């Protein structure tokens, strides 16, 4: 990725909103993405991620706010934007009755590739996606992972400088997901800017920067490391003990403990004051007959941060509602 201080901004929005009747799908988000950056939008389903990406691609007009993609206005210059971007939707936008190379040929026509470039670009896509052996395979018979690679290849066929990926790995297996991200890294290394939406926590770690989106709002942004070290006021304690589900019920009743969640084979405990929480946890587990194998403070995971930020946002919204009554 280019140095953040020197790379040009290629996607920028200010107070972007989209309303559907009384419902605010996107409620005033602002952010900027630099050339060559992998920028992730992390949030649950219904958070406004897809609506935002569709506005940036010129497919949906915003209700309020402003934005520019590749130097073009997202309201007045949508046709120019569409020539500078690649877009891959959740459903891949492929034609199942066509073969792999017929899909590539079709998108070559859609993107109006010059005749002299079509063969070279087709070969590049087949090689990049590892689809040479499947070039004459009907798309409907491909696995989800192969369809995903083909869809990515079709989205970058015309060599766009900016690539928008909307939940691109939803429904594919973990190995295919990892291989797909290897392709994303390759494109980013070539200077392509990648804007990706996801609800997978582990996938978010692959991004250079993240924006956490909830109920149409951007509630935090930064590098994965910054989010984990700067955006969570509480401490996270990780513990291994016998019968973690039963132990969780005991720990949830402690006043020193804010939240407990199963994490792998152990538990993550969130506490405002870890110095007070640790002896309380040890005493409660001993009293309940639970063997404690390990208890230590850790750097929060993105999942810890995500849950903490969303709970804080819900508490703020609830307090505002009570105040307005």
What does it look like?
Strand 7, helix 6 and strand 8 form a beta-alpha-beta unit. The termini are far apart. The chain folds into 2 domains: 9-223, Rossmann fold; 233-299, Alpha-Beta Plaits. The protein has a 6-stranded mixed sheet, with helices on both faces. It is globular and about 75 Å long. The longest helix is centred in the last third of the chain and has 23 residues, at 302-324. It has helices spanning 49-56, 78-84, 100-110, 115-128, 144-155, 174-189, 201-204, 224-230, 244-251, 274-287, 302-324; strands at 9-20, 23-34, 38-42, 64-69, 72-73, 85-88, 162-166, 193-198, 209-214, 217-222, 235-241, 259-263, 266-271, 292-298. The chain is built from 11 helices and 14 strands. By secondary structure, the protein is of the alpha/beta class. 38% of the residues lie in helices and 27% in strands.
